[in-house]
Amino acid sequence: MKGRTLARHGKEGLKNLGRNSWMSFASVSAVTIMLFVVGVFLLLIVNMNSFISSVEEDVEVQVYIDLGTSDEEQTELRQQLQNLDHVDGISFVSKDEGLDQLIDSLDQQSGAFESLRNENPLNDKFVIQAEQPQQTEQVAEAASDLPYIDSIDYGEQVVEQLFNVTKILRIIGLVLVVGLMFTAMFLISNTIKLTIVARQQEIQIMKLVGATNGFIRWPFFVEGLLLGVLGAVIPIAAVTGGYHYLYNNYAEQLSIDFAEILPTYPLTLQISAVLVGIGILVGIWGSVTSVRKFLKV
Amino acid sequence: MISGVVRGKYSTIPAVLPGICHLLRKWTTTTKNHLRVCLLQEVIVLIEMNNVSKTYANGVSALNNIDILIEKGEFVYVVGPSGAGKSSFIKMIYREEKPTEGSIQIHGTDLMTLKEKHVPFLRRKIGVVFQDFKLLPKLSVFENVAFALEVIEEPKDVIRRRVMEVLDVVRLKNKARFFPDELSGGEQQRVSIARAVVNNPRVVIADEPTGNLDPDTSWEIMDILENINRNGTTVLMATHNREIVNAIKKRVIAIESGRIVRDEMKGDYGYER
Ligand SMILES: Nc1ncnc2c1ncn2[C@@H]1O[C@H](COP(=O)(O)OP(=O)(O)O)[C@@H](O)[C@H]1O
Ligand SMILES: [Mg+2]
Hints:
The complex is a heterodimer.
Chain A: H1 3-19, H2 21-58, E1 61-65, H3 71-83, E2 87-93, H4 95-106, E3 125-130, H5 136-143, E4 149-153, H6 156-198, H7 200-208, H8 213-250, H9 264-294
Antiparallel strand pairs in A: 1-3, 1-4, 2-3
Chain B: H1 17-27, H2 31-44, E1 45-55, E2 61-71, E3 75-79, H3 86-93, E4 101-106, E5 109-110, H4 119-123, E6 126-130, H5 141-150, H6 156-169, H7 185-197, E7 203-207, H8 215-230, E8 234-238, H9 242-247, E9 251-256, E10 259-264
Parallel strand pairs in B: 3-8, 3-9, 6-7, 7-8
Antiparallel strand pairs in B: 1-2, 1-4, 4-5, 9-10
Bound molecules: adenosine-5'-diphosphate and magnesium ion.
Subcellular location (chain A): Cell membrane
Main location (chain A): membrane
InterPro entries (chain A): ABC3_permease_C (IPR003838), FtsX (IPR004513), FtsX_ECD (IPR040690), FtsX_firmicutes-type (IPR058204)
């Protein structure tokens, strides 16, 4: 296509937007809402996934020792644990150290827990690192057959809960986004239908003087594209700005000691690209359906 | 079969020529001879209809077994009562409607086998003028005419030159910046004729171009159409205007109930009002 023709299609597409400004506004709003929801859910899901993988990397097997276990028995247990397959390292954490760690991790509210020091409810424990994060469960199961053990904990629940939350988020996000996407698509396709009706006389004359069907269709594709792209502007600004603000002001509160929220860049750039992409897709999709249906060229 | 309806300026050329060409198209194995005859035919014949019938989707039969040959450079009136099928006949030519039966060739293009995507290129050889002008109200006279060239992607300088040329032909050069609602009916029709001829079509077809105009203005329009015809463009016009047909003698094709009932070289309108 010649540059001049491209410019013409662009200009005509823009004119089309102005022709039904209210419908255009409605379409852009629908795309805006849809993309905003997509953006928020993407941020949540991407962060949850990153949480999960850092938790998975960090999981250790906590082997809580029976209360009445003697020092000899403890040494014996340690030896047996050492002999298990895939064990990388073992460290002993006494119940007092355990309490210190707990109070530390709870940070500012620690005052409330100081009283626990008099009557420590924790057990002494061995903390085992597996050679590979995936072997954690195997190590935990092998350890559970050994004596002098009160209980075993290996972060399985945390990982599983995170997985579940993410799964639910994904489903809610998907349902919302698909619903909103169809709404946006429907509105765009209707806006373009109105433009086609408004330009019927022009289209008829174009056909009469020998314009090709492609030439006649282009401005409507441009219109759809513009509706989609315009709809991406506010969500991108809001998602990027909002996340930037959250990250700068609340990054610590939003982190669980080993897992931190992802930095603003490049995450927001990637999400912006995804939003523009979806906007374009929905815009073109909307225009293709109405052009095919209403523009009998 | 078709030889019976061949008339026109080239009456010295054997009237059977198109018929022979037609047969050769079907049966020839010697492409060379085929080409020779058909090239000759293409020099002369612009529109050829064989046994064309049109039945609309609602069952109305608008045209029945139409055979016609129109030569290059002719000026042809199509007359007949309302509902006779004049508009349908015209629509076949620019492929607004497709015959349900028969065959049509325009300037060597077979409209029956013409693919949809090639229709625009057929339309570029044909200028169409309507009773209601069909101008775009928001475009100036210049822009309305230029529109026809813009949408077929002609270069800007060509557009400027050609538009001013045809505005000169229709004597509206001084109103290039006016808008349709600032013009009289006759002037508007002249703009629409300018738009029809701006890309140098082979033929201009006009469906009752003077239907909405008063007598004086109608003569102006005829003057312009004759001028265009004199420069070599074929003109085909459906009309109800008895005075014009009887005064400016041209070939007259009369259609009644979808059939050609009369085809005369310098014919009369032939109907009472
Ligand atoms: N698109 C159409 N669908 C159905 N019937 C049509 C259509 N166009 C024309 N006709 C019918 O075909 C016949 C011929 O119409 P038309 O070609 O417009 O005649 P004319 O131009 O001579 O008045 C009429 O009976 C008309 O009602
Ligand atoms: Mg008619």
